[in-house]
Inverse folding.
C-alpha cells in the first residue's frame, strides 16, 4: 500500500513541472506562436526562485522572483519575435541557451559556486495539509500533503480549459492562431494576443521552475530542467494543446519519472532509469504518429 | 554577400556593446576585459593555434546543423551524435592499438560511423513511423547522454580513475601536432571543403538545397525526397560524430565525464548566426572559439567569470539574427525609395 502511495505521489511530483510548462505552451500554441522557450523559462525561474528565497528567507519572494525571471525571458522573446519578427524557432533556441548561460554565470557570480548551490537559508515552498481530508485512508495521503504548487497546477489546468474554450478571450486566443488576419480585421490585434499568451506562458513556466528548485528539491543545479521543457513541448504537440489531454500526458510522464526512481531499488543502473521519461516521450510520439498521420500538427 | 557582411558586423558590434554593458553593471572594466579576451585568443601564433583547435568541434557541429537546416530536416541531435562518435572512436582506440598511420583514419571513421548511427536512428523513426525528427533528436540527445555516462561508468570505466572515464586510447590514435597547430584543424578544413563541394557543386547537394527551399518543387522536379532525407541525416550525423572523434583524439585521449560539453549546441547557434552558410559557419565558428578561448584567460587577468562567454554568445546570436532580418526589411525599403526617386526624376 505504501509503495503504491509512494508511486502515485512520485507521479504527481514528476508531472507538476511538465504540466505547468505544457499549459503555458498550450496557450502560445493556440495563439499561433511556435514557442520552444519553455525550457529556458523554467530554468530562469528555477534559478531566480532559489535567489529570491535565499535573499528574503521567504518562499513567496522565491515564487515572485521565479515568475519575474521567467517573464524577463518572455519579454526578450516578445521583443525579438513579435516586435522585430525574428524567426520564432531561432529565437527560442537562442533564448534557451541564453537562459543556460545566464543562470550558470549568475550562479558563479552571486553564489560563487559551480554546478550546484544549496543552503539552509533557502526556504522551500510548503506542502499543504488539508484538514479532515488527510485522514481519509489511501486517498488522504495522496490528495493532502502535496506541495502548494501542485494544487496551483491543478487549478491552472481547470482555469486554462475554461479560458480557452469558454470565454471570449479564449476565442480570440484560438483565432490568433487559426487566422491572424481575420482577427486583426475584426479589431483585435493578433500580435497583442500573442504577447499576452507568451506572458501567461512565462507565469506558468515560472511556477514550474519554482517547483523544480523549491519543491521537488531545495537547491539549484546547472541545467536542472534537464529537457523537461522539451518534454512539455512534446506533450503540447501530442494532444494538440488540449489542457485536459496535457494533464493526462503529464501524469503519464510523471509516472515514468517516478518509475525510473523506483527501478533504482532493483539495481538497474541510474543512467538507464534516468532515460525512462525520454524513452516514454519517444513512445508517445510513436503512438501519436500512428494515430494521426497527416493530421495537422505544429508547423514542423 | 555585402548585406550578410554588414549585418554580421553590426550584430557583432551590438552584441559586444551589450556584453560590455553587462560587465559595466557588474563593476568590471569592459575595455580591458575585451582586450585581455582577444589578446589571449587571437594575438600571436600560440593563442591563435589554440583558438583554431577549439574551433574544430564547433565548426563541425555547426556545419552539421547548417547542412541539415538548409536542406529541411530539423536535426537538433548534434549533441547526441557527437558523444556517440566520441564513444565509438574511443572504444576503437582502446581495443585496436595500431600505428598512427592506420589508427588515425580508422578512429576518424569510427567517429563518423558512431555519429551516423545515432542520426540514423532518428532518420529511421521519422521514415518508418512519421515521428517528427525535431523532438526525436532532442530526446535522443538526452538518451545518448545517459547512455555514454553509463558506458564510461560501468563497462568501460578506468578502475584507477577518480571520476568516470574510460582508459586512454592507444598512442597511435592521438592527433599529432604540426608545430603549434593541431592536425585536427586540417581534418576539419578537409571535411569543410568536402561538405562545400558536395553541397554547392554536386547534384546531390543541389537536390538537398532545393528540398530545403521548396520540397514540393523538388519532388515534382524528380528528387527522391526520402532518399535525400536519409542522406542528409546520415551526413550531418557523421559530421557531428567526426567532431566527437576529434575531441577525444586531440584532447584528453579518452572519454571523460562531460566530454560533449556545449560544443554541439554552440555549433547549432553558429549555424543559425551564419544563416546556414558554409563559409559563414567557419568564420563564426572561429569567432566563437576565440571568445571561449579568451574568456578563460580573461578570468585570470580581470576576474570576469569565464561563463560570460555563454551569455555573450546568446546575445550574439539574437542580435545577429535580428539585425539580419531587420536589415533586409530596412535595405529593401531604401532600395524601393531609391527606385521611386529614379522614376519620378
Amino acid at each position: 500500500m505504501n509503495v503504491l502511495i509512494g508511486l502515485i505521489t512520485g507521479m504527481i511530483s514528476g508531472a507538476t513541472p511538465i504540466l505547468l510548462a505544457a499549459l503555458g505552451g498550450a496557450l502560445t500554441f493556440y495563439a499561433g506562436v511556435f514557442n520552444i522557450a519553455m525550457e529556458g523559462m523554467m530554468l530562469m525561474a528555477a534559478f531566480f526562485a532559489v535567489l529570491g528565497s535565499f535573499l528574503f528567507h521567504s518562499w513567496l519572494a522565491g515564487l515572485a522572483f521565479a515568475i519575474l525571471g521567467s517573464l524577463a525571458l518572455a519579454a526578450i522573446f516578445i521583443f525579438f519575435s513579435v516586435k522585430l519578427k525574428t524567426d520564432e524557432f531561432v529565437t527560442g533556441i537562442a533564448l534557451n541557451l541564453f537562459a543556460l548561460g545566464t543562470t550558470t554565470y549568475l550562479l558563479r557570480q552571486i553564489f560563487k559556486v559551480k554546478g550546484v548551490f544549496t543552503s539552509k537559508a533557502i526556504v522551500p515552498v510548503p506542502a499543504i495539509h488539508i484538514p479532515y481530508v488527510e485522514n481519509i485512508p489511501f486517498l488522504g495521503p495522496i490528495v493532502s500533503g502535496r506541495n502548494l504548487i501542485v494544487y496551483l497546477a491543478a487549478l491552472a489546468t481547470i482555469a486554462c480549459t475554461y479560458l480557452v474554450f469558454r470565454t471570449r478571450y479564449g476565442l480570440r486566443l484560438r483565432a490568433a492562431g487559426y487566422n491572424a488576419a481575420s482577427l486583426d480585421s475584426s479589431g483585435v490585434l493578433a500580435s497583442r494576443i500573442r504577447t499576452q499568451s507568451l506572458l501567461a506562458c512565462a507565469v506558468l513556466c515560472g511556477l514550474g521552475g519554482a517547483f523544480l528548485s523549491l519543491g521537488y528539491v531545495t537547491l539549484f543545479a546547472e541545467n536542472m530542467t534537464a529537457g523537461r521543457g522539451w518534454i512539455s513541448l512534446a506533450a503540447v504537440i501530442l494532444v494538440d494543446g488540449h489542457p485536459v489531454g496535457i494533464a493526462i500526458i503529464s501524469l503519464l510522464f510523471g509516472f515514468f519519472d517516478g518509475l525510473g526512481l523506483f527501478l533504482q531499488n532493483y539495481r538497474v543502473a541510474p543512467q538507464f532509469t534516468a532515460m525512462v521519461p525520454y524513452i516514454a516521450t519517444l513512445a508517445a510520439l510513436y503512438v501519436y504518429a500512428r494515430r494521426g498521420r497527416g493530421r495537422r500538427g505544429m508547423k514542423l | 554577400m555585402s548585406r550578410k557582411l554588414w549585418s554580421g558586423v553590426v550584430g557583432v558590434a551590438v552584441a559586444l556593446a551589450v556584453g560590455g554593458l553587462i560587465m559595466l553593471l557588474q563593476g568590471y572594466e569592459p575595455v580591458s576585459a575585451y582586450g585581455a579576451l582577444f589578446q589571449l585568443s587571437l594575438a600571436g601564433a600560440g593563442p591563435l593555434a589554440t583558438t583554431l583547435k577549439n574551433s574544430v568541434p564547433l565548426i563541425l557541429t555547426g556545419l552539421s546543423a547548417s547542412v541539415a537546416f538548409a536542406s529541411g530536416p530539423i536535426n537538433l541531435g548534434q549533441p547526441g551524435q557527437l558523444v556517440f562518435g566520441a564513444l565509438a572512436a574511443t572504444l576503437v582506440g582502446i581495443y585496436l592499438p595500431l600505428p598512427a598511420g592506420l589508427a588515425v583514419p580508422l578512429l576518424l571513421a569510427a567517429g563518423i560511423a558512431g555519429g551516423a548511427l545515432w542520426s540514423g536512428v532518428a532518420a529511421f523513426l521519422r521514415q518508418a513511423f512519421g515521428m517528427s525528427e525535431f523532438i526525436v533528436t532532442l530526446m535522443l540527445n538526452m538518451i545518448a547522454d545517459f547512455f555514454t555516462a553509463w558506458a564510461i561508468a560501468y563497462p568501460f570505466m578506468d578502475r584507477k580513475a577518480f571520476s568516470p572515464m574510460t582508459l586512454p586510447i592507444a598512442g597511435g590514435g592521438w592527433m599529432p601536432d604540426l608545430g603549434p597547430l593541431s592536425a585536427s584543424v586540417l581534418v576539419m578544413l578537409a571535411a569543410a571543403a568536402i561538405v562545400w563541394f558536395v553541397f554547392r557543386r554536386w547534384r546531390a547537394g543541389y537536390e538537398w538545397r532545393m528540398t530545403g527551399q521548396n520540397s514540393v518543387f523538388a519532388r515534382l522536379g524528380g528528387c527522391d525526397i526520402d532518399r535525400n532525407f536519409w542522406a542528409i541525416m546520415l551526413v550531418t550525423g557523421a559530421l557531428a560524430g567526426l567532431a566527437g572523434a576529434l575531441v577525444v583524439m586531440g584532447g584528453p585521449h579518452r572519454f571523460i565525464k562531460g566530454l560533449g560539453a556545449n560544443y554541439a549546441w554552440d555549433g547549432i547557434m553558429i549555424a543559425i548566426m551564419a544563416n546556414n552558410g558554409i563559409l559563414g559557419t567557419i568564420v563564426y565558428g572561429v569567432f566563437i572559439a576565440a571568445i571561449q578561448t579568451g574568456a578563460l584567460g580573461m578570468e585570470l587577468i580581470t576576474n570576469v567569470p569565464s561563463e560570460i562567454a555563454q551569455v555573450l554568445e546568446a546575445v550574439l546570436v539574437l542580435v545577429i539574427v535580428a539585425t539580419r532580418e531587420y536589415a533586409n526589411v530596412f535595405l529593401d525599403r531604401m532600395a524601393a525609395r531609391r527606385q521611386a526617386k529614379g522614376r519620378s526624376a
Notes: DSSP finds twelve helices and four strands in chain A.
